[in-house]
Amino acid sequence: MNYKYKDWLMQIAFTFGAILFAMFIGSLVIMFIGKNPITVYQSMLQFTFGRSDSIGAILFKSTPLIFAGLAVALSFRVGLFNIGAEGQYFIGALAASIVGFSLQGLPWFIHLPLVILAGMAGGMLWALIPALLKVKRGAHEVITTIMMNYIAYSVVHYFVADLFLDKAQNLPKGYGSPMVRMPKILESARMPTMHDFVGIFGVEMPRYIYLNWFFVIGILLAIAVYILIWKTPFGMEIRAVGQNPHASETVGIQSKKVYLKTFLISGAIAGLIGLSDLLGYIGYMDTDFPRGYGFTGIAVALLANNNALGVVLAALLFGFLRRGAEGLQAIEQIPMDVVVILEGVIILSIVVASQLMRRYFKTQEKKREKESQKTSASDGDKEGLENVE
Amino acid sequence: MVSRDLVIETKGLRKSFPGVLANDQIDIDIRRGEVHAIVGENGAGKSTLMKMLCGLYQPDAGEIFLNGEKIELSDPGKAIKLGIGMVHQHFMLIPRFSVTENIILGAENSNRGVLNFKKAHAEVEELCKRYEFDLNPKELVADLSVGEQQRVEILKVLYRGAEVIIMDEPTAVLVPQEVDELFKNLKLLVEAGKTVIFISHKLDEVLEISDRITVLRRGQKIGTVNKEDTNKKHLAEMMVGRPVLFTVEKGEADVEGTVLEINDLHYSENGQAILNGVNFEVKAGEIYGIAGVEGNGQTELVETIVGLRKPASGSVKLLGKDITGKEVVDIRKEGIGFVPEDRHKRGLVLPMTVAENSILGKHNSKDLKKSLLLDYKKIEALTKQYITDYDIRVSSPQVEIGNLSGGNQQKVILAREFSGEPNLIIAAQPTRGLDVGAIEFVRKELVKARDAGKAVLLISADLEEVMAMSDRIGVIYNGRITSEFLPEEVDHQQLGHYMLGSEKEGAAK
Predict the structure, then answer these.
(1) Could you list the pLDDT tens digit for every one of the 509 residues in chain B?
(2) Are B127 and B174 contained in the same domain?
(3) 3-class SS at B477?
């Protein structure tokens, strides 16, 4: 079994090779805008690892991406493409903030879990519609989830700008118009930051870093998803249906039920994406609520090859790149878009590398099987005919 | 008739693919005017060798000689120019084109850019007449039977002036009557001085049609023998490397009560009736074989019984209990073991491991769980048991099942489906695409199940198999069981007749 360990090393080597290749392409882009790639990369590393606040910022930035990656990866496992994580987290955040400002007088240990559950329910509800359309009518989930995203943006806008617009904002005269936002989420529903916790270890995190306990929840959830997929009977159904629905049905797995359940779980996880920002940072829902995590989640899942634990690492890489981008903009006056290009090239090279890797492992395993079948069959061979013709 | 001079000769041909040596040191010689059969198990390298001869693959090493001259076949076009043509197993015809159009496609004769259809028709007609091909050049290919389509493929090659015709498993798709017709055509071709290379693993046919036979095993040539100097047993031994049993050894059937009872079963799809009132029953301790040309409702019948399709009307009863239209899960619980006809589509999840495939469908059973999680130790132990019991050749239960040979894959399915002590076993095309050794194994297991008092429903396109295995035979035609026989009542020819639509007098249900 020692080859398993070797395969594992190969896998890491391939991934790093892909990242290095992407950095090389990135250098060309940086050279094209007239900067020295070495100094640029250097200052990016210095900025992200040389400052105490950067680590916290990276973890905070990667938190929503962990949830997004998990939601997309899970749906990939059953063979569905959940492009709708974007809309699902918008609706999740909307539901969470309604529960967050409207239920008064609850202690935090009841209110906060309720708000989180509301977020998951919102995401699940938004996933239910495309899932039903898929199972009952065969509508392709890519089309329906994309459409649901647009609907979600508009629904949230309607709630924020009209239905639940916070009219109690009393600004002093002359200070402009009130913000277009919903009422603030009550203190009892806010997610505490991790300042006190890291303080125990003598680390002092600056106040403007909003790293909160959703990061830990994300890691625990990644472990839970890993166990679900690889250790439970239902996880086996997910993988079987994802890889061959016909064979699954033949042995009695009801593939439609598996599609439906998995998509709903994916939606519930997606409902958590926005909560780190909502409950740990901004504190209210407004028209500028951060967009795009759902789409980045697709890239994260792809990078992680749909492995739940890999999602955490991929999310951290994206968190690092985004923090680095801020540094580049501030120090080197390089537009953030260079890092966006880098992200894109990394994804492309990882996709290519993982294809190459898969092909390599396939032939390796085939070779081993051919040999083992030959050795176990060779006893019969010796009695074969030697003198023919 | 057969002259001694060689048309094709190869020396030390070798071809490898990543991780597989498909052909190694192959020396063959093909004489002018002979039918030369190439036989071997699946994966022996027959197709690779032929693809090198017709220019689809280039050898890694070795030489090919045509009429004593060394040739380089860089592409199929060149092979055709030199007079080597191949008839593939899967036809490459355009259904909406006529016979003539299909034949001249790619080799059109034109007069200043205008096709000369008259001339083409005349040429094709002339070819048909010369080799006694029963074809109308103006008919659309879509309206032709499979046997007729094959004739079009052969004509395509002849039209391009082939002297050597390579045929890849030509009889796999034909019923006995069509096989006879094909062999008649081939004999005429050979009399006219053409050479035929015939790939097959059906030894009876090989012995009937060919003059000499070359046997390949695991990419190597084992030998070339004259037809007169060999027999089926000897050939099979050369192919497999050990003696093979052909006759299925089975005693008298010890038949008991009815297990499966099908009453007036109807099924239709997209408004087209596929099952038109199927009636039959299978009793405990017997093998009931269903013979029929493919596409007469066999697949749908089986899938309706196991619950994958919902019947329009009629009933399916298992041990007296009505299971019509229930979910697959519930039907399997009543005790059905199902070996599907398409292993890769319906039988296995190829990217999953041998262990996972072995417990698929049983993954919710309490024996394989530890609280909520799967107990991988128990799963592995169970799989190892299967591996020993069913002689599955694999290095570890954790290997992806897609990497195993067809025979070993089928053994995993048998292990899974037979282990639950089913009352009824449905085996659809259980030996399709398997090599001789694996076929023998599968057939023995089916007989074993029958002797253990299980009811076995066997569906096979291989007439040999149906006749050798079954205790009773039902012929399916156009979605109905049109006649039932005892195997000793009929011979091949008669059965073939019934498969094409005749009904047994007075006995049709």
Answers:
(1) 444 588 999 999 998 876 677 888 899 999 999 999 998 877 788 888 998 998 888 999 999 999 888 998 888 888 988 999 999 877 888 989 999 999 988 877 777 777 788 888 888 999 888 888 888 888 898 888 888 888 999 999 999 889 999 998 888 777 778 888 899 999 999 998 899 999 887 788 889 999 999 999 888 899 999 989 988 888 888 887 777 666 677 777 788 889 999 999 999 988 888 999 999 999 999 999 999 887 889 999 999 999 999 999 999 999 999 999 899 999 999 999 999 988 889 999 999 999 999 999 888 888 888 888 999 999 999 999 999 999 888 888 988 898 888 888 999 999 999 988 899 999 999 988 787 788 889 999 999 999 999 999 999 888 888 888 999 999 999 899 999 999 888 888 888 888 887 776 654 44
(2) yes
(3) strand
Q: Any CB–CB contact under 8 A between A248 and chain B?
A: yes
Beta-bridge partner residues of B21: B16
- From the list B409, B398, B416, the residue with the least C-alpha distance to B435 is B409
B349 CB neighbours in chain A (<8 A) are 239-240, 243-244, 247-248
In angstroms, the CA B105 to CA B2 distance is 33
Instruction: Determine whether the interchain pair B394/A248 forms a contact, defined as Cβ–Cβ distance below 8 Å.
Output: no
Please state the domain count of chain B.
3
Q: What single-letter amino acid sits at A368?
A: R
Angle subtended by helix axes A85-102 and A255-270, to nearest 10: 60
Q: Do A383 and B393 touch (CB under 8 A)?
A: no
Assess if residue B309 is contained within a domain: yes
Chain A contacts of B351, Cβ < 8 Å? 243
What is the amino acid identity at position B110?
S
Assess whether B21 and B109 both reside in one domain.
yes
* Calpha distance B274→B271 (Å, rounded): 9
Q: Which of A248, A251, A362, A367 is most worth mutating to test chain B (most B CB atoms within 10 A of its CB)?
A: A251
- The answer to whether residue B426 is domain-embedded is yes
Q: Do residues B442 and B430 lie in contact, with contact meaning Cβ atoms separated by under 8 Å?
A: yes
Closest CA to A225 of A145, A301, A132, A117: A301
The nearest alpha carbon in chain B to A228 belongs to B373
Domain boundary among B240, B260, B283: B240
- B467 and B392 assigned to the same domain: no
Strands (E), chain A: none
Query: Rounded to 10 degrees, what is the CA torsion of B413, B415, B416, B420?
Result: 140
Q: DSSP for A323-386?
A: HHHHHIIIII---THHHHHHHHHHHHHHHHHHHHHHHHHHHHHHHHHHHHHHHHHHHHHHTS--
Binary contact (A389, B356; C-beta < 8 A): no
Q: Using an 8 Å CB-CB cutoff, list chain A residues near B360.
A: 236, 240, 247-248, 251, 253
d(CA A325, CA A337): 8
Q: What domains are there in chain A, each with its CATH number?
A: 55-316 (1.10.3470)
Query: Are B234 and B279 in the same domain?
Result: no
A365 with B403: Cβ contact below 8 A: yes
